[in-house]
Amino acid sequence: MSASDAEIIDLDAYLAEHAAVRNAGGGRGYDEGVRIVDCPLCGERRGRGWLQVEGFAAGCWNAGCEAEPRLAGGAVEWVRRLEGLRSRGEAWVFLLRRYPRRGRRLPSAGRAPEPGDWVRFPDGMRTDWGGASVFERRCLAFMDRQWGVSPADAQRWGLGRVRIGRHAHRIVIPIVMGGSPVGFLSRTIRRDLEPRYLNARSGVADDPQAECGRSASGWLFNVDALLPGADVLLVEGAGDAMGYGARGGDWMPVALLGQALTAQKLAILHRARPRRVVVALDAGPEEDRRAALHVADLRAWGVGEEVLLGRWAGAKDAGGGARLEVLGSSGFLDTLQRRMGAR
User: Fold this and answer.
1) Residue pLDDT, tens place only, 254-272
2) Which of 36, 43, 46, 155 is buried most, with the most CB atoms less than 10 Å from its CB?
């Protein structure tokens, strides 16, 4: 499958033909991309099914439904089952051909940002890392312990720290794409503060509550470092990418910044034209299944000449200092994906 530079899928158009959206008038997460529908997988008629049209997640709140509370494989798996398609690859092709939507083009290095791209970093954010204050030293200790990131690394990645406001007691991680910031997320350094990660709110620039223009569904961390023919390590967390990069690994790390590999992210990776891609998530059965789904999606989109699975040895993840082991051949991956229902 080929894809245009930033071709994405209009799930709202798909739902308009297949389901009545119960929260179309607003509320119940509509502004955040959540669409409430009757679940076609279990047949309930009380509006307990849901799709996230930006993050491509899906699920059902009906007790006993196989999609409760979240369907493995997300909206693409939802569509595959409803349409009776054999594989995720067929589901992607179906959605791209029937429900395409032109998205924002990925800015190229040296070009001005797109009109819709803007960022308003938190008030009071500091980006100097000399260890002068107690709070700064706490942030440095956290970054070293959690990600293996040094003060020099923090400076290189443009990390910041904030003590007040919505992102108080957090380390700010800018998302730079096309040479310019398009968003940011923050990571708390306090154990009693939830959520651990907080994304910048997206919206229009004259909205005082908005912090950036681009939705998180179109973010990829360190994607600007990719050159055609690169060998790419795909991880979920920015900390994993920074930790692996700090140790000078052979693969170029790129982070999804969450669990979702959306159509926007797939289109951006397709355009980057990597040679090989290895997907390495944290250890665990759920992470193994998610990695297999990512591999299937990357293959369906033709991202890379070869897509492989990786695992971390010696620690939980790259941020903890684990060593990357690249697993398997195409045959191995095919077997894994069949076992996990990812094909």
Assistant:
1) 999 999 999 989 999 999 9
2) 36
